[in-house]
Structures are given as C-alpha cells and as structure tokens.
Prior knowledge:
six-stranded mixed beta sheet; alpha/beta; Trna Endonuclease, Chain: A, domain 1
Amino acid sequence: xxxxxxxxxxxxxxxxxxxxxxxxxxxxxxxxxxxxxxxxxxxxxxxxxxxxxxxxxxxxxxxxxxxxxxxxxxxxxxxxxxxxxxxxxxxxxxxxxxxxxxxxxxxxxxxxxxxxxxxxxxxxxxxxxxxxxxxxxxxxxxxxxxxxxxxxxxxxxxxxxxxxxxxxxxxxxxxxxxxxxxxxxxxxxxxxxxxxxxxxxxxxxxxxxxxxxxxxxxxxxxxxxxxxxxxxxxxxxxxxxxxxxxxxxxxxxxxxxxxxxxxxxxxxxxxxxxxxxxxxxxxxxxxxxxxxxxxxxxxxxxxxxxxxxxxxxxxxxxxxxxxxxxxxxxxxxxxxxxxxxxxxxxxxxxxxxxxxxxxxxxx
Length: 363
C-alpha cells in the first residue's frame, strides 16, 4: 500500500523541522533540542487526537525519517512517544504562534516561546536540563511543585541522570524541609537558617548499606559501610558537602573525643557532624551532640565560618520525643532517620522470602 499524500507531507514537515534545527546550530544546543522535541511532540499529539495515530504509525514514521535522514538519532518510536509526553505535560508553559495545522510544511522553532507563567529563573533552569532528565522527572513525579523542584535542583546542582534517579528514589522533594530541628532558635542568620532547612532531610536512603541483623547495635559497622561508600553517601546528602573524616579526634582538657562523621558544607559555610545510631532515638543523644558542637566551634571552626550543625542519624525516632529533647540546647541540631535496601516496598512484601528464611535455605 502506497503512502498517502497527507502522510508524505507529514514526513516532509518533520524532516524540515529537523533540518532547520540543525542549520540553526552546528551542534544542537539543549534549548534547540527541547524546542524541537516540544514541537514534534505537539505535532504527534495533534495527529494522535485528530487522525487516531497509533504505535504502528509511529514505528513507520521513525523508519521513514531514518531513510530520509540516514544516521538520524533520537527519533525512535519510543522517543517520539516521550516527545508527546513532554509536550502534553508542558503545554501550558509554552506559547506557539501560529498554531500547528494540517497544512504546515514546516515547524518553525522560532515561534515557540516560553509562557509568561514561567519565572525567568525557572525558564533558565528548564532549558539547562536535558530531555532525558525531563522525561525521568515527568515519568516519576505528579505535582507541578515536585517537578519544578527537581528541574531547579538538576540545573543548579548539575545532577547527572544517576544522581537525579537517586534523589527520586530517596523522595528528596517530600523529605526536604521536614527535618525535626531547633534551627529557628539557634541560627540567627535568616539566609543560613533557610538554607539549613532545605539542606537536610527527614530521612536518607542508604541503599548501599548491607548490615546483618546481628550488627544492628554496632554503630561502627554502619560507619564503616558509609565510609567505604562515601561517594554514594555524599550523593544522598546533596550538593556542597565535603567529607573531612570519620572518628574525627577532638581533645578537650586532655581527654579525647571522637566524632563519627565530619563534613563541611560550602553553602552553609559550616562544619556538619553526623552521629550514627542504629537503634531508636534517645533524648540523651542531644547532650552529647551539643557538647561536640561546642568543642568544634571553640577549637576547630574558622573565624569566617558559621557555627557548626549536628545531625543525629538513627534508625527510628518519635518526633514528639525529639521536639521535647531540643529544649534548652543552644546549638543547631536535627534528627534524621535512615533506611536501607533491606526495606522492601509494600507491593513486594510477601513475594520474596525474608532474611531468616533465606539464611535457612542457604544453610
């Protein structure tokens, strides 16, 4: 069956759009690629709705484009479905004038502009995020606020795709700003306080940790696993953290004290100490942390740096207990929990044997 005239015109229109994009930039810059994919996505969206295009048509379209432009990459049937998703999810943020019609012979990318609903900062972030990143965000998030959060973080902190996936797995958006803390009373600088609230999370996903049940009361085993995988731990923490060391030695009046993990955060301009607890949070942990922070600020902190911050990272916590425990301490502290890959999502529970059953099978 010979292709119809309308179909051949569609091929010409898409071919023209691709060539226009190539002519405008010898190497397709990201904004050019995004606008091209947005335009193609709109084109396909319209055809699906008006002419009932299905998967087979997109496969034929992809093959025919490849014949017209040998070596063309990025226009598989799957990728064109993603372009449609990209358009339909972002349609409200763009303006196209004049609108695409059945009679078009080309798709003019110069006519695609950002909508005034986007702030200048968000527009800048948007065009600095790759199409692959955008699709990952669209497929794994639902709310506009959540998508904006990951777009801005990806652009400003230069997240790779694997880093973005890690933060999506860790539900960074949901957990950022939820950390139980006493920052409102202990951090006087408004800017630093707001940064601190956005820096630390209520829960961290340490899916690189693999400790046996017998080791649950041994913080040194947990610490060893984190240090051994410190790069992955830094990815869990977020940007601007620099690792100083573990079992960091402090001397106070000729007595030695050792901090589990010590970092410096460039954005906050302060030392950050993590104390590891494999059990449930206890109020007495606060006194020890307050002491460590006082010693750090007295002996280690540089004059130009902000006061140190302490995070108690434990397996479990009761927020009301944490809230009461914060009272009457003058150092900035927070309490987070962690989970490891041993914790199965609810949908998988019952489908796989538990640890004890696996041990018995192996024995």
